[in-house]
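Last lecture ended with a question: if I hand you only a sequence, what can you say about the shape of the protein? Today we answer it with a concrete record. The protein is NAD-dependent protein deacetylase. Below, first the input exactly as provided, then the predicted structure, then a couple of comments.
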Amino acid sequence: MNGTEKLKELINRSNNIVFFGGAGVSTESGIPDFRSTDGLYHQEYDYPPETILSHSFFMRNPEEFYRFYKNKMLCLDAKPNMAHKKLAELEKAGKLKAVITQNIDGLHQAAGSKEVLELHGSVHRNYCMKCGKSYDAEYMLHAEGVPTCSCGGRIKPDVVLYEEGLDMTVMARAIQAIQDADMLIIGGTSLIVYPAAGLIDYYRGNKLVVINMSVTSQDKNADLVIQEPIGKVFAGI
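The predicted structure:
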């Protein structure tokens, strides 16, 4: 029985599946993985991405922050791939209870998923730091220089920057979902970003699946490891 067959069999035997995903879920939609060698590192900026995408840099140098952000993080033409679509189908069928994602691209919702817990926020929500007014991603993309509110305040994307804490309400819901799961599928993440990666420790079931192109810290604990592109794997389900 190959990996996809075994995955199908595990899904058939489960009724409370949780999916935990990272950048690898969206690479097949054309969104570059932040840390991959051909990702954001080979580029024309004076600072590494971690510096630019930090809270202090955003406050200190918003022009350069937004030059990078609009160029690299706002991939508004990207479309959901088979992984996003199949996860939405599994939710509709009542098998999948939650998608927990480290991605900020909104592709799970675009594919039709309803219960999506965004650990690192979303590019689709933006708010004025002065008056709180909301703006969509299109407004951010087309704004000249630093996006500014009608009140004159600076607009900030609702994404978790380096040096910022995660939303504790979202974290609590993610922990609860993982604790209740009878099957946990980890996909497209090498599990090196904390605190998000630490959520896996809350899983108490015995159907742990890892689908990732490279080795992860959970491979040794997994009941099934598939090292193939996740969209391709889900297409076979």
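Comments.
1. The domain at 1-31+80-120+165-237 is CATH 3.40.50.1220 (Rossmann fold).
2. The beta strands are 17-21, 96-101, 116-118, 121-128, 134-135, 155-159, 183-187, 208-211, 224-226.
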